[in-house]
Write a structure and sequence with these properties.
By secondary structure, this protein is α+β, with helices and mostly antiparallel strands. The protein has a single domain, classed as 2-Layer Sandwich (Secreted effector protein pipB2 fold), CATH 3.30.2450. The protein has four helices and seven strands; from the N terminus they run βββαββββααα. The strands form two sheets. A four-stranded antiparallel beta sheet has the order 4-5-6-7. The protein has a three-stranded antiparallel beta sheet with strand order 1-2-3. A hairpin with a 4-residue loop joins strand 5 and strand 6. Helix 1 runs antiparallel to helix 2. The longest helix is centred in the C-terminal third of the chain and has 18 residues.
Length: 153
């Protein structure tokens, strides 16, 4: 299992975002639709893992299909992650939860994971800001309060 993690997230116009997850060897592109509040979920999951949660999940809903980023805390300083793909929306019950393909996996320090999430949020916050984010993301506001909590966590 590789010990690296990088994450990028680019909000496009009209309710779409493109992301990239890398374990240092492979890079996988993920797409997120406005139908799911992926960025808020990512913030909440990261904060939970920094606190006391032992695992968490973030959904990158495509149309059709979805990626799930699943993290598991290994100890107080490290976590493992797995990115899996469903051909339809498992989160909406459109496909069985056991019909997935593992796309990428690895491990890293919890601090590196947090840093990558914060950097992606900071990029969105400084280049778009909450108002443009809302116009592009349509259904959901920029998770400003969660972002600020992550900055001091």
């Amino acid at each position: 299992m590789t010990k690296s993690f990088s994450f990028k997230y680019d909000v496009k116009s009209s309710g779409w975002a493109d992301g990239e997850i890398s374990n240092g060897i492979q890079k996988v592109e993920v797409t997120a639709s406005y139908l799911h509040d992926t960025l808020s979920e990512l913030c909440e999951m990261t904060l939970d893992v920094l606190d006391s949660a032992t695992s968490g999940k973030v959904i990158f809903m495509n149309e059709p299909g979805e990626h799930h980023l699943i993290v598991t805390k290994l100890n107080e300083t490290e976590l493992s992650y797995q990115l899996i793909w469903y051909d339809d929306w498992e989160s909406w019950g459109e496909i069985s939860s056991d019909l997935y393909t593992e796309v990428i996996s690895g491990s890293c320090s919890i601090s590196i994971f947090k840093e990558q999430v914060v950097n992606a949020l900071k990029e969105i916050y400084t280049t778009l800001g909450p108002e443009i984010y809302k116009k592009r993301w349509i259904e959901h506001d920029f998770p400003e309060n969660l972002y600020k909590k992550l900055l001091v966590a």
